[in-house]
Amino acid sequence: MNEDRLRFDLADLAEEVTPVDLRDRALRTSRRIGIQRTVTTSVAALVMIAAATGTALAIRPNGQANLPAPATSVTSSAPPVEVTPTPQPSATASASTSHSSPPAKPAVLGGTRYYLEFTDSEARIHVVRSGRHETNVLPLDKSGCAANTMTISPDGKRLAWVKDGAADGMNGTLVTSRIDGSRQRTVATGITCLGPRPLVWQGGDLLMAQTGNRSVLMDMVAGKPHNGDPGQETDRCWSADGKWLAAFDAEFGKHWVTGKGVVRQYTYTPPKDEAALHDGWQPRSVSIDGRYVAVGWVGTDPSRQDGSFAVVDVTASKVVDLPGAGKVRGILFTLDGKVIVQRENTLTVLDGDFRQLGSVAEPASVRGQRLLAYVP
């Protein structure tokens, strides 16, 4: 009786229970656990990235995260993402919104200019550079030798002049100093102080002078004559670097330029109407390639002459046409290959092929003064 009752109860219970596929349930459970692990791992990785980049993540209750916008400088190993190119602004928009300035042009004359001025009692050396102006004043003796001989080296490092002229005013003592007149010292005695250019520089250290009836090349650093034959040509003039010499051979009546193993003979005929007023002409400046010379007049009296008025191409014996307007007062070939043409109150700056680079207005304090040197 009891056994039959038990069998009937078990049969009824079996009919009330819904059959379940344990295999399907096990698979679903396994997938759910895997998804949870993946989400957990992803969230942990995002938290680590946020910590490295200083960005906070807000984790939602449902397990999702608000991801920050990617920084432009971050480098990652994620798969490449296609980026839509940013449209280029129109030319009109660029013109109306751009505030950038064009690159500044280098100064036409960015170096230092040295002018020389004389009064009755002093010499004034004007040093002009990039809008700055410095004046060095040196007292003059009454012999007149200093005013006729004071000169500035092409590198702008030193002055040289003849002072304490003899009673006849024809010769004196050769001295040198810094541009400001300091560290003055004697180099030689019995140096002639007459003539249109009694002292001529060969580069920055050597100086040609006249003593008696001969030439002597002085080493202004060592303070003594330079070794070697100075030669006896007249009207000598060197390029600013001292490598090319323009001179006149009085014995043969020839003008020539020589340097670096090259000899160039040339001729020049000055304007006749002007030539009648002077005692000839001579070279005053030589280009650093030895191809051009600037020429100036020699006065009818034995006084200095610093100006020049024309340029001659010595390879063709032709006058070069100089750009610009106005009477030319001086022409200077520079160490950096430029050509400075001094006119009334203005400097016209040319390149080595005589193309105009620009012009510079001279300060009022140096207008009309001698431009003796330019150092880039």
Structural notes for this entry:
It holds the Pfam family PD40. InterPro entries: 6-blade_b-propeller_TolB-like (IPR011042), Haem_d1_sf (IPR011048), WD40 (IPR011659). The protein has about 375 residues and is an alpha+beta fold. The protein has a domain at about 140-230: N-terminal domain of TfIIb (Single Sheet). It is about 15% helix and about 35% strand. It is built from 5 helices and 26 strands. The protein has helices at about 1-15, 20-55, 90-95, 145-150, 270-275, and strands at about 60, 65, 110-120, 120-130, 130-140, 150, 160-165, 170-180, 185-190, 200, 205-210, 215-220, 225, 235-240, 245-250, 255-260, 260-265, 280-285, 290-295, 310-315, 320, 330-335, 340-345, 345-350, 355-360, 370-375. The strands form 7 sheets. The chain has a 4-stranded antiparallel β-sheet with strand order 5-4-3-26, with no helix packed on it. The protein has a 4-stranded antiparallel β-sheet with strand order 6-7-8-9. A 4-stranded antiparallel β-sheet has the order 10-11-12-13, with no helix packed on it. The radius of gyration is 44 Å and the shape is globular. About 25% of the residues are buried.
Structural class: alpha+beta
Number of strands: 26
Please work out how many helical segments DSSP would assign. Answer: 5
β-strand amount: 35-45%
> For the record, what CATH class of the domain at 141-228 applies?
Mainly Beta
End-to-end separation = 130 Å
Question: Order of strands across the widest beta sheet?
Answer: 5-4-3-26
Major pleated sheet = 4 strands, antiparallel
Q: Give the overall shape, derived from the CA principal axes.
A: globular
CATH architectural grouping of the domain at 141-228: Single Sheet
Low-confidence segments, given as residue ranges, are 11-104
The portion of residues assigned to helices is 10-25%
Which fold does the CATH topology of the domain at 141-228 refer to? N-terminal domain of TfIIb
The Rg value, from CA coordinates, equals: 44 Å
Mean pLDDT: 79
Organism: Micromonospora inositola
InterPro entries: 6-blade_b-propeller_TolB-like, Haem_d1_sf, WD40
Biased composition (Low complexity): 89-102
Protein name: WD40-like Beta Propeller Repeat
